Each structure stands twice: as structure tokens, then as C-alpha cells.
Amino acid sequence: MICKSLNLKVFFFLLFVPFLQLHAEGDIKLGKTLFKANCAQCHNKNMKDDLTGPALGGVQERWEGRDEVLYSWIRNSQAVIASGDEYAVNLYNKWNKSVMNPFTNLKDEEIESILAYVDCMYDGSCVPNNAVVVTGATGSGSSAGAVNNTLLYGVLALILGLLALILARTIANLNYLKLVKEGNAPASRGTVADILTSKGVIGFLVFSLIVFAGYTTVNNAVDLNRQQGYAPEQPINFSHATHAGVQKIDCQYCHDGARRSKHSVIPAANTCMNCHKAVEKGTKFGTAEITKIYASVGYDPNTKTYIEDIENVEWDTLKAVYTKWIEANYRKDNGIEEDSELRKEGTRVISEQWDGIVYSLTTDQKKDLYGPIPWVRIHNLPDHAYFSHKQHVTVGGVECQTCHGPVEAMDLVYQYSPLSMGWCINCHRETEVKFANNDYYDSYEMYHEEIANKEREKVTVEEIGGLECQKCHY
């Protein structure tokens, strides 16, 4: 009876089950998703460096095994502080009384998954799937290979394949012996080739191929245009750490569209010139990068005037203008007066900087130095998603760092947030609307009355329609 019940279809189904289990990542995978949706706005994903909030590596040890209090802290930190918990109060004060967003909807198993992901990132047993991993406060991107189990899966597949052949052959022999006993045996028993070309095996392979193709297609569709951590090289080495960090230039001075339009806008080079008419040399790159700005707007730094009829000026003339400027600064920096002292090194620097200007300001579509700087776009939402900077910055009072991370610490800007639909929805569920002294929300009389009567403490974006489909997909 046992032999009769065994067949190739059942065998290959049993063979398929281990692969389903093999690819399930369990709690850590769930924790990664929850961390990105809820925690990544404020906590560094390497779990070792502070960001807006403290590094999360070793968080359970710091709470001295008081998991219940830690879970309560994650759900509503202000309630734990109000209870007088000494560690919670000290932590709150240490971080300048920054209020942590409440996550009251998180279940125990979801918090456990987040903590499991934090631990595996902290001890190095897992890393993000992104090709670019952002480290430290500088925001510089560095390539880091994700954990690759291809070889392991290949070895396991080979072993299971051999076991499959052995088991299939064994089943065929047992069935043949059964037929011999019954007197119905064929002239010859089936070979391995017969097994591999049987309808059952071919059907299973076709089914597996369809499942794999569907799985790959759906995953690629979900990840389409997702580029968290993307940090492309820009035509000019512009450091936000220097401008927004050291010099304390407000984000909206350059990205002035953020407060008044849908787009934050890339600042025109004329905005740069407001400062760089006076600041002619950079602290890190000297004349190399600022001269690119001059060339893009047709400004002659030697005479401190704009070149007339710049569109029709010959390349040799432009080259003479900017190489003269570069040479003058090189001579000044190195104390060189005579032409004979310029030598090979100086000539090389001048040539390299000019080549850098041409390389950075020209493309296949833009043949002239003069004109807009060809910046590489980093943040790019799908066409079917509507997002207004004005609504968030002016009306909502959302800080730039909420979505773009610690830009003031980035030498090379990268995409800090996933900008996924789930990430936006979670933000709308958790973010409190700033009703106080905000005329935009005067029409919500019921909420104002409930707040005045102390019937509610806050209103979230979700409660004023922030999860309605047509708000973003009209």
C-alpha cells in the first residue's frame, strides 16, 4: 500500500516545500519593514551611530532587561516619562526633550521583530539589501555587498536534486517489483531519463518557472524606482555639510520653492552667485568647483564682470578667461611669481581644472559651458503620485530633515527615506497636525472644540483625510 501511494507528483511537492521554507526570513524580514516604516526617520540604520535619535544597537541591554517598560516606551514614550521612570526621564533630558513619535498600534510580536532586526544589523549578521550603505555623519555612500546566499542555495539545490533522483529511482524500482509480483511488469524498467522527461516532472518544472517569474516580476514592480541610499556623483562637489551645517544657510534660502510650490526646485546658479561673488575659493576644493559656477553663468572672476554676449564667445576665449583665473590663484597659493617657476605641476593643475569644468558643465544635450548646471536628480516620485512641498512645509510645518534626513551633515546628498507608499501612510497615521495658530485648519471646528474641552489631545493627518486615495492619486 505504501508503494502504491507514492508517486512522482507527491514526491516533487514534498521537494518543493523546503524551498518555500528556505526563503522565508521570518521576524527579521518583518522587523526590517517595520523599522523602515516607523524608525528610520530618526534612527541610523547601521544601529551604531546617532542620528536625530540615539543609535539603537544594544537598546535592550540599556533598558536592563525591562522589556515591558521598553515596549511601553516604544508605544508611548511620554506616558513612560510621566510615570517617573528614572532611565526614561534621563534619556528624554539627554536628547533635549525631543518627543518620540508614539506607535500605539504596534503589537508585541512586531516590536520583537524590530528589535531582532536591530540586533542583527548591530552585530553584523545581516545588512540592508541596498547596494549603497550610508555610514557616519558625513552621509557619504560606500559600496557594501549584501549577504549573498546564492552559493548556499546552489549547493542545497544540488543536494536535493541528487536526493530527488535517488528517491525517484527507488520509487520506480519498488513500483516495478510490485508489478512483477502482480505479473504485469513491462519488458524493461524505467530509466532515469524516462523519469526526468515524464509529464509529472515537466509539469512541475513549468509550474516552478511560472511561480518564479511571477515572484520576480511582482518584486521588481514593487521596488520600481525605489532607490533609498542613492547617492549619485554630481557635476559640482557641493557639500551640504559645509553650506547647511557649518555656514548654517537655511534650506529654503536655496530651495525657495519648497514654501510656495509643489516642487522645492533646484536653485539656479544665480543664487550661488549671491555669495560666491565674494567667496571666490572653497575651503576644500579651492577654485576647482566655484569656477564651474562662474563658467555656467558667464562670469569673469578676473574682472568681476559678466561676459557680454556669452552665447557667441569662442571656446578658446572662455578657456583663456578661466585658466587665467585658476593660474592666478595657483601662483598666489604657492608663492610663484616667475613663469619659469610654474613648472609641470602647476600646468597640470590648471589643465585638470579646465578639463573638469568642461566635463561637468557639458553633456550630449548641452554643448556649451554657459547654461544650467546639469545636476543629477536624486528624489523622484512616480508620475501617478502627487506631492506638494508647500502643503507639507508651509501648512504642515514639516522640517526638511523629516523626509530628507540630516542633510546638514551630508557632503554628498543621498536619498534618506524610502519614499514608498507605506512610508507616507505611516507618517500620516502618526504625525500630529499643528492646529495651534494655523489659519489653514480653522474650518475643523469639531476638532478645535474637542481639543478645547480636553476630549482629545491631538489630531493626526489621517483624521483629516490623509489616507484618502484621491489626496495623492487624484
Structural class: mainly alpha
Main β-sheet, spatial strand arrangement: 1-2
User: Strand portion, in percent?
Assistant: under 5%
CATH topology-level fold name of the largest domain: Cytochrome Bc1 Complex, Chain D, domain 2
The share of residues in helices is: 40-55%
Cα-to-Cα separation, first versus last residue: 63 Å
Explain this structure.
By secondary structure, this protein is an all-alpha fold. The protein folds into 4 domains: 2-20 and 150-222, no CATH class; 25-143, Cytochrome Bc1 Complex, Chain D, domain 2 (Orthogonal Bundle); 267-361, no CATH class; 393-472, no CATH class. Helix content is 51%, strand content 2%. The protein contains 22 helices and 4 strands. A two-stranded antiparallel ribbon has the order 1-2. Strand 1 and strand 2 form a beta hairpin. Helix 14 (269-276) crosses helix 15. The two termini are 63 Å apart. Mean pLDDT is 83; it is low at 1-26 and 128-146.
Annotate the secondary structure layout.
Elements (H helix, E strand, L loop, with lengths): L1 H4 L2 H15 L3 H13 L20 H4 L4 H9 L1 H6 L3 H9 L13 H15 L9 E3 L6 E3 L6 H33 L9 H5 L2 H24 L17 H7 L4 H4 L14 H8 L10 H11 L1 E2 L4 E2 L8 H20 L8 H19 L27 H7 L4 H5 L16 H10 L14 H8 L16 H4 L2
